[in-house]
């Protein structure tokens, strides 16, 4: 694997790869107006994107914004569909193949064959190890304050520029990173962009390697902006917290929020929607309430013929997969076999 990204633009810019990016981008969204309109002339649109990228005349479009309120209020900035194809092409063909092998093994967000389940199970395994080896140990649970809103565009671009030497790739990345500059200034990545997930992982990969290589902490885990560190003593946890805070401030212009805390390992830890203990894994109460309310809504819609049982079952598949690794037999019986 080369140490830098160079001479990859022309190898990856093709009509076929852009079409594949379109196919991936429209999954689960085929009934939306923007997707339908694009599909009507998809060959022409893909050719248009290809020619603009090849000529270096591509300009990122604007955003439409809306708010979501689960799990907390967040502003989503939605790119135009044509830009979302460009985002996916860039990430899938150029950024992922290079950067994912360079992420630490205990970074889990938006990485194939990792994700929330593996993150939780790996943390639990480490907790059992610490329990067996030391009996008592401590957990440092960290959460970055307003992470996406506080990512510094200039710092991000400088991090990318250290490894990316292909000028055409850098041009496109700059076009995307600064696409909302007029609205937000030097900070903030659009949460709705496919590129933002990858950029966020690259940004915090700086912290990951600092913790693992410089500070030499072994039991460190990250899912996007939530981090967990297991150490033997409270003094170690306090020292690590001080060092990590300083690194985040000095190098990434980030701060930890008030959810950050140190506690004994026997108390367990909340991570990725689960309450994790050495020999027990449960869904947090907030997640249970949300799922129960959704089940009630689906049952109501089925009874009133607003949706079919098959449609409801399809919708629930992802939720069922999410809860199955936890100790949820009683919860499943309560949700699905009671009125």
Describe the structure.
With 339 residues, this protein is an alpha+beta fold. It is built from 15 helices and 9 strands. It has helices spanning 9-12, 15-25, 33-40, 42-55, 81-99, 115-134, 147-150, 153-163, 167-177, 181-184, 194-214, 234-252, 285-303, 309-323, 329-336, and strands at 63-68, 74-79, 138-143, 220-223, 226-231, 261-264, 269-271, 274-277, 280-283. The chain has a 4-stranded antiparallel sheet, with helices on both faces. β4 and β5 (226-231) form a beta hairpin. α5 packs parallel to α11 (194-214), α8 packs antiparallel against α9 and α11 (194-214) crosses α12 (234-252). The longest helix is centred in the middle third of the chain and has 21 residues, at 194-214. The radius of gyration is 22 Å and the shape is globular. The N and C termini lie far apart (56 Å).
How are the elements arranged and paired?
Elements: H1 9-12, H2 15-25, H3 33-40, H4 42-55, E1 63-68, E2 74-79, H5 81-99, H6 115-134, E3 138-143, H7 147-150, H8 153-163, H9 167-177, H10 181-184, H11 194-214, E4 220-223, E5 226-231, H12 234-252, E6 261-264, E7 269-271, E8 274-277, E9 280-283, H13 285-303, H14 309-323, H15 329-336
Antiparallel strand pairs: 1-2, 3-5, 3-6, 4-5, 7-8, 8-9
Helix pairs in contact: 2-4, 2-5, 5-11, 8-9, 11-12
């Amino acid at each position: 694997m080369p140490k830098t990204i160079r001479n990859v633009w022309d190898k990856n810019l093709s009509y076929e790869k852009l079409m594949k990016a379109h196919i991936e981008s429209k999954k689960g969204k085929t009934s939306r107006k923007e997707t339908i309109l694009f599909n009507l002339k998809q060959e022409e649109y893909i050719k248009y994107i290809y020619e603009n990228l090849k000529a270096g005349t591509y300009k990122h479009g604007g955003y439409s914004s809306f708010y979501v309120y689960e799990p907390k209020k967040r502003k989503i900035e939605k790119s135009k569909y044509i830009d979302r194809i460009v985002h996916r092409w860039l990430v899938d063909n150029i950024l992922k193949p290079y950067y994912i092998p360079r992420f630490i093994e205990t970074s889990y967000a938006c990485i194939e064959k990792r994700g929330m389940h593996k993150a939780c199970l790996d943390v639990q395994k480490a907790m059992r190890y610490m329990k067996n080896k030391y009996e008592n140990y401590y957990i440092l649970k960290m959460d970055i304050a307003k992470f996406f809103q506080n990512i510094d565009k200039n710092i991000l671009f400088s991090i990318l520029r250290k490894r990316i030497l292909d000028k055409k790739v850098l041009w496109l990345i700059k076009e995307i990173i600064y696409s909302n500059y007029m609205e937000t200034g030097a900070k903030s990545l659009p949460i709705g962009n496919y590129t933002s997930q990858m950029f966020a992982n690259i940004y915090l990969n700086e912290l990951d390697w600092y913790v693992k290589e410089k500070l030499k902490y072994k039991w460190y885990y990250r899912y996007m902006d939530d981090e967990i560190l297991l150490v033997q003593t409270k003094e170690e946890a306090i020292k690590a917290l001080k060092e990590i805070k300083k690194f985040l401030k000095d190098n990434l212009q980030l701060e930890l929020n008030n959810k950050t805390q140190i506690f004994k390992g026997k108390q367990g830890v909340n991570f990725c929607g689960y309450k994790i203990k050495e020999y027990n894994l449960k869904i947090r109460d907030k997640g249970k309430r949300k799922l129960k309310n959704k089940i009630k809504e689906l049952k109501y819609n089925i009874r009133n013929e607003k949706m079919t049982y098959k449609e409801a079952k399809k919708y629930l598949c992802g939720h069922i997969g999410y809860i199955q690794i936890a100790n949820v037999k009683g919860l499943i019986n309560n949700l699905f076999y009671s009125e």
